[in-house]
């Protein structure tokens, strides 16, 4: 590194001085020394090369710390396994086909992968792996120059064949070889470009963007699970807007999340409704700002994928439900219900878990409910139903509903915020009185059967539902009142 003190020209993320990059990596290597020195010595003694590689090197240069260490070696997986078994507290095979052996020692998690020189069959969903013999060869098949750096152990020699240090200082993503070759080897790398733009705030090089645009349809051969994992990382990153705009701009989103570009509805000639796409990205950013509430009130760790994804999908029902009325207004009736259906379908295609699908789906479905609240004329029954329908997702629904206000009219925004404060206070008050979250009828199934003298069956279920509705309408009742109401319902039912 010559000219180490010179500030580099700005582009993308704030540029770093090379001298700072160097200092950061040295400080991190000192911190990692207890592990790296030991492992470096063990592999060297066994006649193998070993190097810290990829993410941890990049993150060390960015001054970020992590106890997850990716290493690469000339040793074959059996040899790696032998060394790690003797050294660590626990070890595992990450899939022998990929040549990765994992191992934990104290707080450290180490993954050691044999040098690769990968070749891909463009029609196959899984990369084919061939082991390689050199560190440089291994680095050459990595996705971006900033991820294609290594530090040899135990000597700490930085290996940077593709100018990763400079790219990192400038905050740009470039591929080691041509982006076209790289993306035809593994089209997932196009998603990874967007993910790193979102995570690191880096600019994606023009040539890379051009290749992503030209080759976007190749993403179709990548498995849904791999696409999903990158999408989740992108959405959970500090700057998801950058990544999402890149997906939309290059056309990748047309394949992986077509509902998002579809939000770019043309404005009608009267400009009567907002650009839904831009509104959506703002709602996502506002939801992120509100994330600390989820931690305080519902003990959810940030970043919270479910609330972020719900923010992104909350209006996806709009394009399909848009109607222009004769008086020039635009409506989106039932875009909540339609949007929830579209969201669930997309999440199933992306192989999300049922829990995640249910959580996001119900948030999208409920995101408009509050707007019937007006200035506080909901009955207690309506508040109870809101809480019951939101179930586990109540705190996230609070966040989504608050984030969904993007009006530039300060007075209007303030009024909505206060109205929602008021709703939350009413929920808190009712909850304290009635333990709303666990609303059950005042009588259980056994009591119902005893009181009515009936056997288990459909009628018990109907009685239970009747009592639940009554409980939601009236709040808690005494056992006597509930029994009387049940008897009356039963008598009327027998009469019908
Ligand atoms: P994080 O662990 O935070 O997701 P990372 O950079 O470590 O970020 P991983 O997905 O863990 O990313 O991959 C580890 C390293 O392997 C990367 O830094 C990169 O060098 C390389 N790599 C991963 N996936 C690919 C790919 N599809 N094509 C080429 N290289 C890849
Ligand atoms: Mg990693």
Structure description:
The protein is of the alpha+beta class and 496 residues long. 54% of the residues lie in helices and 8% in strands. The chain contains 23 helices and eleven strands. Strands 3-4-5-2-1-6-7 form a seven-stranded mixed sheet. A two-stranded parallel ribbon has the order 8-9. Helix 7 packs parallel to helix 9 (224-235), helix 12 (276-289) packs across helix 19 (394-403) and helix 16 runs antiparallel to helix 17 (354-366). The model is unreliable at 1-12 (pLDDT under 50). Bound molecules: adenosine-5'-triphosphate and magnesium ion (MG). Adenosine-5'-triphosphate (ATP) binds next to helix 7.
Topology:
Elements: H1 18-45, E1 50-53, H2 55-61, E2 68-73, H3 77-87, E3 90-93, E4 100-105, E5 108-114, H4 135-140, E6 150-153, E7 157-159, H5 164-170, E8 172-173, H6 179-185, H7 188-200, E9 203-204, H8 206-215, H9 224-235, H10 240-250, H11 253-256, H12 276-289, H13 291-298, H14 305-313, H15 318-321, E10 323-324, E11 330-331, H16 335-349, H17 354-366, H18 380-390, H19 394-403, H20 410-434, H21 445-452, H22 458-474, H23 479-495
Helix pairs in contact: 1-2, 6-8, 7-9, 7-10, 12-14, 12-19, 14-17, 14-19, 16-17, 18-20
The structure holds adenosine-5'-triphosphate and magnesium ion.
Adenosine-5'-triphosphate is lined by residues 54-55, 70, 142-143, 147, 186, 188-189, 233.
